Amino acid sequence: MTTGIGCTSRALRSEPRWRTWAIQTYRERNGFVILDTSEVQARVPDPQIKVISEYLFKDGSAAQHTIPVSIRGKPYLIHVDEGGSNGVQGFGGGSWSAPCLAGYTPFPMARIVDINDERHPKLASKLIVEVNDPAKCANVLPDLVGLFAFSYGTHYCSVDNRHNATTLACDEFNSGIRVYDIRNPRHPKEIAYYNPAGVGTPSLGSNHQIITKYPTGQPDWCTAQLHLDAESGTIWSTCQDNGLLMLKFERGVWPFEDSSTPPGEQN
């Protein structure tokens, strides 16, 4: 059973009509592929997986995962990278500055893609906070001296409800936890954030310290799956040094009137 696509897969996501395959080949072929797996689902002998479309881009790498969602009744795919436009520094990637010179962000991000016409996916929006903005490179690069691997950028994201998505929450390494209103997928808005404190003594097993030897006291790495709870107005996740975090939204920021968090429907 082959597809004829020369790529490395990281995340395979099944849906009733199609399957999304996130590919991670650094820089050259980063993005996702939509595959027709109907013959596999029908248990046809010698099933063939057919390529419906590819969606590739240069301003990202190390595709991390995808979340197929419905927003206002229309299908979208949320795609999340783990590497920036020049790969992951220290793990086969290049310098931080090269993407900046090309007008790209050096950090990974999430993006929302319109797949109403799954043969021709179209970008709806990119979720870029100020530190990830290519226009801010000159301000950010000095902050990265002596560092490598992950810094400011996405890792894992979750929605409130894949079948009626209103909210996207992302763990973004040193940028902490970011929450976005995606009810208008072409104009998402950041509505909340949480940056955990740096710690004097790293947690045992912290990748923040083991993999990268970041100096003590640096901002924590938030890298885990997030769970939204509309009933209590909370979000919980873990960060490498601070451990389990239970966060509550203030001043009625979230949930929205149409937000819901049914079990098993967040990522």
Radius of gyration, in Å, reads 19 Å
- Summarize the main sheet: 4 strands, antiparallel
Structural shape: globular
Mean pLDDT: 85
Q: Which strands sit side by side, in order, in the main sheet?
A: 1-2-3-4
H and E string = EEEHEEEHEEHEEEEHEEE
Count the beta strands: 15
Helix content: under 10%
Discrete helix count? 4
Distance between the ends:
27 Å
Q: Show unreliable segments.
A: 8-12
Which percent band covers the strand fraction? 35-45%
> Which structural class best describes the helix and strand composition?
mainly beta
Please give a structural write-up:
The protein has about 270 residues and is mainly beta. Helices cover about 5% and strands about 35% of the residues. Residues about 10 have low confidence and may be disordered. It has a 4-stranded antiparallel sheet, with no helix packed on it. A 4-stranded antiparallel sheet has the order 5-6-7-8, with no helix packed on it. It has a 4-stranded antiparallel sheet with strand order 9-10-11-12, with no helix packed on it. The protein has helices spanning about 40, 95-100, 135-140, 205-210; strands at about 10-15, 20-25, 30-35, 50-55, 60-70, 75-85, 110-115, 120-125, 150-160, 165-175, 175-180, 190-195, 225-230, 235-240, 245-250. The two termini are about 25 Å apart. The chain contains 4 helices and 15 strands.
